[in-house]
Amino acid sequence: MTLNARNLAIALFVLMFGGIVLSMLMGWWAASPDAVASNFTSGEAAGKPNPASLKGMNTLKQVSDQFGVPTEDLIRAFNLPADTDPGKFKLSGLEALNASGVEIGPASVRVFVALYAGLPFDLDGEPAYLPQSASDILKERGNLTPEQLVYLEQYTLYVGGPASQAPADGTATPAVSAHLVRSSTTFTELLNWGLSSTLIQKIMGKPIRDPAAPLGHYCDEVGIDFQAVRDQLQVEVDKLNP
Amino acid sequence: MVTVFGKRIRLFRPKSIWIRKVVQAFFFVLIALISVNHTLFESGQNIGLISYASVHALCPFGGVETLYAYLTSGTLLPKLRESAVILMMIGFLTAVLFGPAFCGWICPLGTIQEWVSGFGRKIFRRKFNHFVPEKLDNMLRYARYGVLAWVIYVTAKSATLLFADYDPYFALFHFWTGETAISALVVLGLTLGLSLLVERPWCKYACPYGALLGLSNFFRVFSIIRAESTCKADGACSIMCPMNIPVDRVKTVRDHQCISCLECTSEAICPVAKTVVFTTRGVK
């Protein structure tokens, strides 16, 4: 059988739009952005909303309505002004408010909501930082597993860095309170001490792949002399934490 | 030829597949309208009757990107919708039947490259599309498989659409939003700039979806077949091929870069009727 251009054009239209119409009739087609998160389809949480499907376009109110997290807690967790309108503020707006150089945005809200509401969430995926205020709220609720607490230890960002904002409950590692750059110090700790990710990467000369990695381990892995970068990092830390 | 303000203007070069240009323009305008409507939707308003889906939701390659996440966790990557998976399947079906006709007839990024190439052809004439030395060109054409492997790997590892930061298709329909990464805009600029020298540079050297669909050229139902008995061997088919495939040297076009544009066929540039045809294998 031979096809000419006109018939090929018709065939492409039929396949393309026919396929779309058919999938619509079967109830499979979904192209427009949802205002709400989708539900888990299997497992213990089947039927419950999936925090992983939250998007930047979702507002605080939508998150609150669907996941049962009070808007007051969301506002407090992410250090938003008290007069923030939950019906208008979108999760993508968090990125613009973050001045530390480390991204706190919709991904952070997904983690917060999952831990707050006790819903399944893959913490081994791309890490997302949480502000100290968000971590504090989660710890106050007291329903976290040991793994989730470890995650918070690794990915809590003490915005502003100074020691005054370090955890007061004794959960900080000795390196945090002493501000000494050691081989066991992690990139997260450096960020918490106020160093920007840009400055850290400039000193290391290589991109940071895992913020939770200890500096010594990272240096061994990428072939950097730890002692050399340690001194430079210490100088910068001392400038911010005299 | 059409008459505009009393002047006769040629819209398409003679012996071109004009209907393909119309189909390309249709899909380009459709995606552009939907993209603008999506921006309006995000600001709380949108035009009725037109979909306000995001570019991600309407990209069949999004379906490929999310495949790993879908198979391992049953969820789609953030920003993607089921439509991307369905479009991916439709794209595969068309490829099995007609080869990468999606690239040659539907993909808006391919279309805009062709439009820019129209200027390049006028500027450089015969030199156009022959700037890259053949050996280098042949090697570079396999780079898109590297891009495909890289995209699948980093997407599976990060569970995010990292490729969007380099994707010229996303940049083309998102550049006005401020959400487009500079790297994506640079890739788009390079693609369009190079289109003045080379036909479809992104498709030839970097497109991961084109790489995947291109594999269908080895088993597609409808192929471009050249009848050696009536061929005048004037090389017109090879000269006209946007992907520089030597059609006049093969009986059946099995090149992984063929995009089924039909510009080499007897319906277009080949001067002999029924000599280069789009047909099922073994049928004369």
Task: Write a brief caption for the model.
The complex is a heterodimer of chains A (242) and B (284). With 242 residues, chain A is mainly alpha-helical.
Describe this structure in words.
The complex is a heterodimer of chains A (242) and B (284). With 242 residues, chain A is mainly α. Chain A has a two-stranded parallel sheet. The longest helix of chain A has 21 residues. By secondary structure, chain B is mainly alpha-helical. Helices cover 48% and strands 6% of the residues of chain B. Chain B has twelve helices and four strands; from the N terminus they run E-E-H-H-H-H-H-H-H-H-H-H-H-E-H-E. A two-stranded antiparallel ribbon of chain B has the order 1-2. Chain B has a two-stranded antiparallel ribbon with strand order 3-4. In chain B, strand 1 and strand 2 form a beta hairpin. The model of chain B has no long low-confidence stretch (mean pLDDT 89). The chains are: A mainly alpha (242), B mainly alpha (284). Chains A and B meet through strand 1 and helix 1 of A and helix 1, helix 3, helix 4 and strand 4 of B. Strand 1 of chain A pairs antiparallel with strand 4 of chain B.
Average pLDDT over all residues of chain A:
80
Describe the strand arrangement of the main beta sheet of chain B, using strand numbers. Answer: 1-2
The count of strands of chain B amounts to: 4
Radius of gyration of chain B: 20 Å
Residue share in helix of chain B: 40-55%
- Ends of chain B: how far apart? 34 Å
Query: Secondary-structure element order of chain B, as H and E?
Result: EEHHHHHHHHHHHEHE
Content-based structural category of chain A: mainly alpha
Query: What is the N-to-C succession of helices and strands of chain A?
Result: EHHHHHEHHEHHHHH
Describe the oligomeric state of these chains in a short phrase.
Answer: heterodimer
Q: What is the molecular shape of chain A?
A: extended
Head-to-tail CA distance between termini of chain A? 82 Å
